[in-house]
Each structure stands twice: as structure tokens, then as C-alpha cells.
Design brief:
alpha+beta, Chalcone isomerase, Serine Threonine Protein Phosphatase 5, Tetratricopeptide repeat, 2 domains, two-stranded antiparallel ribbon, 10 helices, 7 strands, 14% strand, binds heme C
């Protein structure tokens, strides 16, 4: 069954004009600048840098909120010169600067009913690769009011976590999808960091390396990552994406795998029946649909209304298949 995401809400917001134009950054604005006593000056133009990604409710350090507070957002930016260099080499040049904003999140504000938006800037953390400084990578919990901030001592723990767990050098590239593709291609993922397969990476194996390699990669990933990203839902969406791209054979292989992995899932057989129908495999489509009906009937937990709608749709498919050759 194709699960369609909630409809996209398009918001048209009237453009507003700023009171004063943005100041032109000086040519060295994207380089680290220090005060005489070694404090890092806050680069006030960091919001003009390249946005890498947002995390929502990621919880790994002492500055993140926890418990009952809504999950915080983290927004990561990097200076554009270093970003361009990374695209070429998969590595960060000297003087790379990262900014990480921590924003509180909120839900209630019309017309929003569900889902979180970013509300108040709580903290600005910075990480600078600078070969002129001890330890190469330095960490700063930037003051939002003072123009410059002293580096955190190594004992603060930032360095150790980034050194041990970040995928490329000290940067958590595993959480920045577009950069992760670059790092994989350039082979710059640190030894000992294992990047799990996801639908995007696995679909490349499926379409480029054939089914035997794809299934082997799937098994290897499942064995290595008990919390695999290749969930039933992810596989189901990938199967439909392949089907709509006319990769019917690959789509069927994916859906067949799902039925083997989740043999009591009516949805898995429903999807497989869709793909068989598309491929003109009438007997197989009928067989998968009958299996689906059997599983739905046996499901004690499924609400009656849902049972009825799935059963009706399955019977409708059987009717259509009768007239197919
Ligand atoms: C326990 C692990 C851990 C600790 C400790 C930690 N971080 Fe991070 N940091 C992460 C993870 C995970 C991310 C990436 C995800 C995100 O939050 O968006 C990250 C991202 C960052 C980034 C964005 C660039 C990058 O490296 O990917 C900055 C800047 C940063 N952290 C600064 C700090 C500072 C400053 C401290 C110490 C006050 C700190 N971090 C402590 C795990 C850690």
C-alpha cells in the first residue's frame, strides 16, 4: 500500500524589507579572528554561510534539553570556502569554521497544528580547525552578548566526543546527507565509523550492482546495525519509488524481500501485488492479494474500519485481475 505523506502546506509570506541593508562582509570575514588574549570573535555573518543540516531533538551532550521540553533544533553552518573545498576533496581545509545554533522548538502558533518550528536561539557553539592553535580542533560555547569568547578546555568533552564519533575528521558528516555522499565517494570516512545503509544508498546498490549484491549488502547492514534504517516502511517506499521509475523487476525484488522479512504484514503482500499487477504477472498478483486478505482476516488488532477498506481494495484488485489476461 502506498503511504502518501501529509499534504504539503504552502505558506506565502509577504516579503518584508529590512530597515538597513546587510553590511558587506570583509574578504576575511569567513576566517577565524582572535582577540589579543586568544578569544574567538563571533562571526556575525555566519547565517550567510552554507547550511549543512538541522537536527531535531538530537540528544548527545549536556547543552541539549531533555525530559518534557519540546525537542530542540540544531542548525549547522560552515564557511563557504571550506564547503567548496570539501566538495572537491571530502576533507576540511585549515581555518574551517562551523557554527551550530541550538533553537528551542514550539508547536502552538496558528495556522500550525502539528509539528515543530524553531523558536528562540538558546546557544551558539563553534568549532574551528586551526593549525596555528594547539589540538588543531577547538571548541567554543559562544557568548550571545559579548563579541568574543575563550575556547573551552579540552576537558569540557567536546573534543573527545567529536574525535571519537564524528565521521570525517571532527565533523559529524554522517548527519549531513549531501556531504555524506561526498565523503563516501571520496573515501574520507574515518576508520572505525560505520555508516548504515539507508534507502538512498541501498537503492544505488539495487539498481547498479544487481539483486544478489543488493541482498548481501542488506543482510550485512542488518547484522551490523540492529537499529537499521532499512525498516519495513523505508523498504516499502523504496519499492514504490522503483516502480514509478519503471524499475519493475527491482521493485518486485524489494517487495518480495519485504514479504520474506515481514511474513505477517498484509501491507507487504498488498505492495507486492501492486508490483506484480504492474508487471502483468496476473497469477502472482492474485496469489499475493489472497495472502493479503488472509492476513487481514486473521489480524485481531486491526480496527474494523481499516480492515474493511483494505479488504475492499484487495477485492477490487481481484476483480480487475479477472479481466486481465
Ligand atoms: C557526546 C558527543 C558530543 C559532544 C560532547 C559534543 N558534541 Fe558537538 N556534535 C555532536 C553531534 C552528534 C553533532 C551533529 C549533529 C547536530 O547536532 O546537528 C555535533 C555537531 C557539532 C557542531 C557542528 C559541526 C560538526 O562538527 O559536525 C559543532 C560546531 C559542535 N558540535 C560543537 C560542540 C561544542 C562546542 C561542544 C562542547 C560544548 C560539543 N559540540 C560537544 C556530538 C557532540
Amino acid at each position: 500500500m502506498k503511504i502518501i505523506g501529509s499534504s504539503i502546506l504552502a505558506l506565502f509570506i509577504a516579503a518584508y524589507s529590512l530597515d538597513s541593508p546587510l553590511p558587506e562582509p570583509s574578504p576575511s570575514a569567513n576566517q577565524p579572528h582572535y582577540t589579543a588574549d586568544g578569544k574567538l570573535q563571533r562571526p556575525d555573518n555566519y547565517r550567510e554561510w552554507v547550511f549543512l543540516s538541522s537536527g531535531l531533538g538530537m540528544n548527545y551532550g549536556p547543552t541539549q534539553n531533555g525530559g518534557s521540553a519540546p525537542p530542540a533544533f540544531t542548525n549547522v553552518f560552515v564557511n563557504p570556502e571550506s564547503y567548496r573545498e570539501f566538495l572537491k576533496t571530502g576533507q576540511w581545509p585549515d581555518k574551517t569554521m562551523f557554527a551550530l545554533e541550538i533553537y528551542t522548538s514550539a508547536v502552538n502558533s496558528p495556522p500550525n497544528k502539528r509539528g515543530n518550528f524553531q523558536d528562540t536561539l538558546e546557544a551558539l557553539e563553534m568549532e574551528v580547525k586551526d593549525s596555528s592553535k594547539p589540538d588543531l580542533w577547538r571548541y567554543y560555547d559562544m557568548s550571545l552578548t559579548e563579541p568574543a569568547t575563550a575556547p573551552l578546555p579540552k576537558a569540557a568533552g567536546c573534543f573527545a566526543c567529536h574525535d571519537a564519533n564524528a565521521a570525517v575528521e571532527h565533523s559529524f558528516t554522517q548527519f549531513y546527507p549531501a556531504l555524506l555522499d561526498v565523503a563516501i565517494e571520496k573515501g574520507t570516512i574515518k576508520k572505525g565509523i560505520s555508516v548504515p545503509l539507508n534507502a538512498h544508498r541501498w537503492s544505488k546498490v539495487v539498481t547498479e550492482r544487481g539483486w544478489a549484491a543488493a541482498e548481501a549488502a542488506y543482510r550485512e547492514d542488518k547484522a551490523k546495525h540492529p537499529e537499521s534504517l532499512l525498516t519495513e516502511g523505508a523498504l516499502n517506499s523504496l519499492g514504490y519509488a522503483l516502480l514509478s521509475n519503471k524499475k519493475t523487476t527491482e521493485s518486485i525484488a524489494v517487495f518480495e524481500l519485504v514479504t520474506r522479512e515481514y511474513p505477517t504484514s498484509a501491507n507487504a503482500f498488498d505492495s507486492l501485488a501492486d508490483a506484480y499487477t504492474e508487471a502483468g504477472r496476473v497469477a502472482d498478483a492474485r496469489h499475493a492479494t489472497n495472502k493479503e486478505l488472509e492476513l487481514v482476516a486473521a489480524d485481531g488488532a486491526m480496527p474494523a474500519a481499516r480492515k474493511k477498506s483494505i479488504t475492499d481494495a484487495a477485492n477490487e484488485r481481484l476483480e480487475k485481475l479477472k479481466s486481465a489476461k
